């Protein structure tokens, strides 16, 4: 009887010890805010390949419709990492949010696509950029024949699509954005639907929407490529909140290594990412051929070295300050942690 009691007691003690050990070694949870575009594809690859799970990390993906929305969650401590546009992070730092960019994800993602009269005469495949006087003439001709300025869809003020559109018009082509077009700032899904429905004449889009629109609206044309808008245009980045906090040490380097590995796969073997990206975007409803085509078109844009975008981020911030979109410049170098990437030996 006594032996039975002690045996049961020993079992309970053993179970309690094991529970404590499990808690002590539980996989760290990383909450990652992202927007549903191909710039976030490294996350989908990491998840699909189970690289983080194998590394003992539990990743929770939280979807947002724009970078500024994700920034609000970041500032509130509701997410630990962020994969979206880089410019809102400068504004976050200006408000005291301790966030650092540890990797780039993609460059030259954003393009301006036009439809209807604004697209007339444009080649099916962009060859030479339309710039300066030729671009002004196209907008002037549209306004004269339509009786109004062209409407261009973007995302909310302060987002990368909005800033890149204004930069392309003003800094690249010396056109006053307010005089040239009516810029309509809405969330990601609404912008895409507005363009498909003809509610706007052009929109700042990225993959996979660009490929999807080409198939649905064969007469739509590219008015400006990502390179036309800005050579080396900074796109999605991986940023970490409070990266030097003690709890980040449990996952930061392993997470970054997996992210860079996924970016390399997208760059060199995009077809391997098709099932992961398709499952993550639009509820798996996008046709396989659309996802494959968009990934192949984007392969050369996947760049993980954060040092490659420091100069372009500086240019965009200078433009935002000059335009009154940002009150005061922030030290761009302070936004980047370049050393963590270098330690990977890339």
UniProtKB/TrEMBL annotation:
One of its GO terms (cellular component) is periplasmic space. Residues 1-26 form the signal peptide. The keyword Signal applies. The keyword rRNA-binding does not apply. It is found in: Periplasm. Keywords: Signal. Its main location: periplasm. Belongs to the bacterial solute-binding protein SsuA/TauA family. This is Nitrate ABC transporter substrate-binding protein. It comes from Novacetimonas maltaceti. The lineage of its organism: Bacteria, Pseudomonadati, Pseudomonadota, Alphaproteobacteria, Acetobacterales.
């Amino acid at each position: 009887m006594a032996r039975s009691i002690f045996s049961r007691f020993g079992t309970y003690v053993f179970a309690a010890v094991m529970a404590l050990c499990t808690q002590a070694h539980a996989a760290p949870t990383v909450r990652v805010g992202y927007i549903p575009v191909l710039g976030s594809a490294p996350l989908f690859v990491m998840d699909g390949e189970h690289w983080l799970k194998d590394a003992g990390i539990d990743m929770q993906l939280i979807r947002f419709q724009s970078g500024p929305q994700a920034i609000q969650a970041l500032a509130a401590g509701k997410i630990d990492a962020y994969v979206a546009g880089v410019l809102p992070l400068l504004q976050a730092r200006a408000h005291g949010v301790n966030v650092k960019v540890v990797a780039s994800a993609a460059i030259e993602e954003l393009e301006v696509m036009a439809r209807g009269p604004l697209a007339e005469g444009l080649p099916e495949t962009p060859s030479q950029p339309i710039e300066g006087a030729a671009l002004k003439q196209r907008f002037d001709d549209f306004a004269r024949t339509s009786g109004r300025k062209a409407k261009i869809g973007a995302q909310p003020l302060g987002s990368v699509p909005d800033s890149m559109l204004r930069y392309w018009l003003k800094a690249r082509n010396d056109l006053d954005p307010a005089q040239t077009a009516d810029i309509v700032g809405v969330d990601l899904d609404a912008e895409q639907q507005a363009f498909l429905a003809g509610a706007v004449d052009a929109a700042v889009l990225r993959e996979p929407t660009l490929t999807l629109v080409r198939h649905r609206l064969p007469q739509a044309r590219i008015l400006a490529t990502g390179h036309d808008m800005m050579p080396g245009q900074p796109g999605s980045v991986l940023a970490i909140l409070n990266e030097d906090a003690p709890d980040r040490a449990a996952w930061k380097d392993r997470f970054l290594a997996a992210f860079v590995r996924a970016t390399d796969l997208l760059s060199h073997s995009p077809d391997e990412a098709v099932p992961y990206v398709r499952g993550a975007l639009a509820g798996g409803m996008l046709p396989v051929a659309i996802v494959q085509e968009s990934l192949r078109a984007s392969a050369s844009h996947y760049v993980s070295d954060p040092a490659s975008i420091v100069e372009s981020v500086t240019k965009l911030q200078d433009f935002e300050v000059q335009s009154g979109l940002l009150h005061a410049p922030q030290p761009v170098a302070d936004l980047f942690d370049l050393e963590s990437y270098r330690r990977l030996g890339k």
